[in-house]
Write a structure and sequence with these properties.
With 135 residues, the protein is α/β, with parallel strands linked by helices. Helices cover 56% and strands 11% of the residues.
Length: 135
Amino acid sequence: MICLDTSFLIELWRHRDASEHRAVRTVARHAADVLVVPVPAAGEFLERAAHVSSQRLKEGIEFLSNFRAGGLDRDTAVCYAELVAELRRNKGLEGISKFDAWIAAWARQHGAAVLTDNPRHFRRYAGLEVLELAR
């Protein structure tokens, strides 16, 4: 199972019709895997679409329907609390995105790797497998 980060979704959206683009190739490379968009990534992605127009929001919703949705629950909240507390203890909270922390928590809870276009945002979370786009 692979958890898709917002930065990856944006890159894939921008180049969805370019079969040779590295984001599109990355999806093809992971065709046998279950690709999941956690609720925080979906919300962050759709907020950007809604900012453009209601039509873009509809298109964004349709785009996300290509992937499984990953919901949040109390166990996700516990994972989130543990991850953020660990960063706080190690003085690593500066500059973190709350969205990224929730995405990391969802991935940790479900034993999923995170596929992102910003790997350094997720490498700070111990024990989290981080995947990058195809080269």
